[in-house]
Amino acid sequence: MNDFSDRPWLASYGDDVPHDIAEPTETLVDMIWNSTRLYRDKVALEFFGATTSYEKLREQIASVANGLRQLGVGHGDRVAIVLPNCPEHIVAFYAVLRLGAIVVEHNPLYTERELRHQFEDHGARVAIVWDKVAERVLAFPSDVGVSTVVAVDVTRSMPLATRTALRLPIARARESRAALTVDRPVAGAVDWRTLTASRYLSNDYPRPALTDTAVLQYTSGTTGSPKGAILTHFNLRANAMQGEAWVPGLRRGEEVFYGVLPMFHAYGLTLCLTFAMSIGARLVLFPKFDEKLVLDAMGKSPATFLPAVPPIYERLARAAAKRHISLKDIRFAISGAMSLPVEIVETWETATGGLLVEGYGMTETSPVALGNPIGPSRRPGTVGVPFPSTYIRIVDPDAPGTDRGFNEEGELLIRGPQVFSGYWNRPTETAETLLPGGWLRSGDIARVSTDGFVTIVDRKKELIITGGFNVAPSEVEAALLSHPSVADAAVIGLPSKNGGEDVAAVVVLTPGSQLDVEALRTHCRTLLSAYKVPRTIVERKELPRSLIGKVLRRIVRDDLIAGR
Description:
Residues 37-424 form the AMP-dependent synthetase/ligase domain. This protein is of the alpha/beta class.
């Protein structure tokens, strides 16, 4: 048995990587204020070519914070953000935090049903929402508790020439504009410009404490029910510091990060919203990943740091080769959210000359806990070694007090300053996930080599990871079962060629029904986000069940894989 307390992985750290980080002493508000002071004339944000300096960013944050204060937002209040990647997202995030309030991030592509479930849980009274989806929030019944919806037109942050082009009386322009905004003010919503026109919030307005909750990030966690992970200023600031310590050769005030990861996801939030801003980087924002937009941006502001997921690296490398666009400025690329195939590493590193390394984390670890060293000691095929100030154990999944040794499989436990403090209003789930001593149960089965590299073997939990997002099988099964032709359903993840998983379903039909795959998928689309809709739906006469009647999803999965 071995609790790895001697941290054998430290020998694999780069020469300039500290074994531990200093304990955070500044909140995220202090952090962004320091960046706006140190890099005041540098570009903080770029959006379709339009730029915002760090000084202007601070002014916008102070104005919106005062506007939110006038709407009644105060310390400890939850404020929902339902936005794609855009400058307003960054401003709103830090304006909420400036008041000591709590940001609750949401996927703007969620259906009304999915959003309502989360709003009912966190109880935010104010929501800052993309105008394209504002009506979904406005449609909530009064008992959900939302009193004010602030609508954001993201096209107003684009250059004048781009906005003008979007208004041309041609079909392509109309289609592009319709994908980005609505044509008229949203009835019943406050215009974002009302907040930006506010006076600056007074500097002596009380600031949050390090131990205050900064963000509620919804996750399916290690069980299937979405719940809000409580991330404090301390957690998120620590993870940004760990990220900076991990990457040798970072140039403060000079790096260019590409924000292709959605910032409503924990991975995009930390790598772009906090880490990038903490080092005075230029953050180039994309409302969604579009390889053409990304490669076009490389001509003006070439990326030097690209956090992404495996399919993005593969698509960019191939598209750049086809268009004869150089990717050689990208020195650092960190992949997460799904396994990284070695073939994609080879393709990317041939295209860029830089390194592509895999990391590992969870929403509950703010989110990064492990990473491959950015240097010769990296080991493709593993998720690397624990970050500075991070400890791990491998334990018996059924008896987490029993440690396992090198090269033995068991559940991965994590402890460090980035580990969350619990789930919002979920004491039972918190107690099941956080063990005495601050150890987080990951729900992942892993093994550790003698020199400390971690390989994820399997998941104890049954979540499906598709495109970097978690999908709870039970949620998709409920959607399928609400269709009159479905008597029973089991949802699993099938390995994808891109390294993640595809959502697949096995259904048992009601007597007299016939399988209509497209009808079932269309039904699911009315209840679920697109990425949760099964790609594959097959029929079986019955589902395998345990003696107590539980569907054996592993057998279902093995059956479908064998059938391929």
